[in-house]
């Protein structure tokens, strides 16, 4: 693109996640979330359950990769983290029930949605069927 340059500000600063967390806890009495972007039930469930189970996308890989690249953790530590569930299974089930209720679905409807194929062509075909 002509005249547009990309600025990577965060690559230019010294940022250590653990140091920042410690400072926030000490100075602001902050309570850290158990996972990246798990500040709400919906984001936690979407990233830790739906993306992983329906699309085989584990958002932790990108987050851990950035920590590896910045030297804050090792590849072995990241691989060990990925062996664990994204968040506790019991909490996943609580979140699942909560989301199903909030979305006004039955468990059967939710399971059907989760089992549907995940390809764009299927979405296009479904739109054609509805018209």
Describe the structure.
This protein has 131 residues and is mostly helical. The chain has one domain (14-130). Helix content is 61%, strand content 0%. It has 7 helices and no strands. Helix 2 (41-55) packs across helix 5 (89-102). The longest helix is centred in the middle third of the chain and has 15 residues, at 41-55. The model has no long low-confidence stretch (mean pLDDT 86).
Task: Reconstruct the topology from this structure.
Elements: H1 17-28, H2 41-55, H3 60-69, H4 75-83, H5 89-102, H6 107-115, H7 120-130
Helix pairs in contact: 2-5
Approximate helicity band:
55-70%
Estimated structural class: mainly alpha
Taken in chain order, the helices and strands follow as: HHHHHHH
Model regions low in confidence, pLDDT < 50 over at least 5 residues: none
What about the largest sheet?
none
| Domains, number | 1
Task: Record keyword descriptors for this entry.
single chain; mainly alpha; globular
Q: Can you give me a brief rundown of this structure?
A:
The protein has 131 residues and is mostly helical.
């Amino acid at each position: 693109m002509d005249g547009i340059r990309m600025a990577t500000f965060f690559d230019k600063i010294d940022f250590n996640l653990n140091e920042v967390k410690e400072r926030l806890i000490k100075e602001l009495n902050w309570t850290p979330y158990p996972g990246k972007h798990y500040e709400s039930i919906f984001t936690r469930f979407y990233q830790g359950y739906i993306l992983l189970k329906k699309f085989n996308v584990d958002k932790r890989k990108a987050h851990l990769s950035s920590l590896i690249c910045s030297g804050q953790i090792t590849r072995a530590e990241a691989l060990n983290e990925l062996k664990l569930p994204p968040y506790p299974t019991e909490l996943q089930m609580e979140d699942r029930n909560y989301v199903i209720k909030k979305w006004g679905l039955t468990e059967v409807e939710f399971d059907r949605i989760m089992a549907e194929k995940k390809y764009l062509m299927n979405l296009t075909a479904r739109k054609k069927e509805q018209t």
